[in-house]
């Protein structure tokens, strides 16, 4: 659709889409956290996935009949990863503060980055980031271990689609 546009326009459009996506994720997480009392984490996650699929179908309007079995397999695998990611996030949010639940997801990539660090500054940056995460999470004397586990368990399904789409 935008192949004939200038590289600057495509870059700006990409940045706008990333910004819209980031804002929508945060807003939907806040809205979803108010649904837990009524629908629980599974119901809230299911509703979010249904609404996301409906919006995507309306915007993309793919021809579903022409998709190959390989394409359907990829779609189902991607959907399963998204569903696992949402269920684990909402299960964590039910038990621990939203800020801590979202922050836990980024500790895995932080660990990978720190393992690959070579110079002094590269080794220092993950430590500073971890200090920032600890400051953002605040000092907690009591926490729900299951909520922490759900927050940590969200890392593999949230990184899996990045690996699949990079191939």
UniProtKB/TrEMBL annotation:
<dbReference type="InterPro" id="IPR037185">
    <property type="entry name" value="EmrE-like"/>
</dbReference>
<feature type="transmembrane region" description="Helical">
    <location>
        <begin position="71"/>
        <end position="90"/>
    </location>
</feature>
<keyword id="KW-1133">Transmembrane helix</keyword>
<keyword id="KW-0812">Transmembrane</keyword>
<keyword id="KW-0472">Membrane</keyword>
<feature type="transmembrane region" description="Helical">
    <location>
        <begin position="42"/>
        <end position="59"/>
    </location>
</feature>
<protein>
    <recommendedName>
        <fullName>EamA domain-containing protein</fullName>
    </recommendedName>
</protein>
């Amino acid at each position: 659709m935008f192949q004939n546009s200038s590289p600057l326009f495509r870059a700006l459009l990409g940045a706008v889409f990333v910004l819209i996506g980031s804002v929508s994720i945060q807003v939907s997480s806040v809205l979803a956290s108010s649904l837990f009392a009524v629908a629980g984490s599974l119901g809230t996650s299911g509703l979010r996935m249904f609404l996301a699929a409906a919006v995507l179908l309306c915007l993309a309007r793919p021809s579903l009949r022409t998709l190959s079995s390989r394409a359907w397999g990829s779609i189902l695998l991607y959907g399963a990863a998204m569903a696992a990611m949402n269920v684990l996030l909402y299960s964590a949010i039910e038990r621990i503060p939203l800020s801590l639940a979202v922050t836990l997801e980024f500790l895995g990539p932080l660990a990978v980055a720190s393992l690959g660090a070579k110079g002094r500054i590269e080794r220092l940056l993950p430590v500073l980031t971890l200090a920032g995460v600890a400051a953002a999470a605040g000092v907690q004397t009591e926490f729900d271990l299951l909520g922490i586990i759900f927050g940590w368990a969200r890392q593999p399904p949230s990184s899996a689609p990045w690996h699949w789409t990079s191939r």
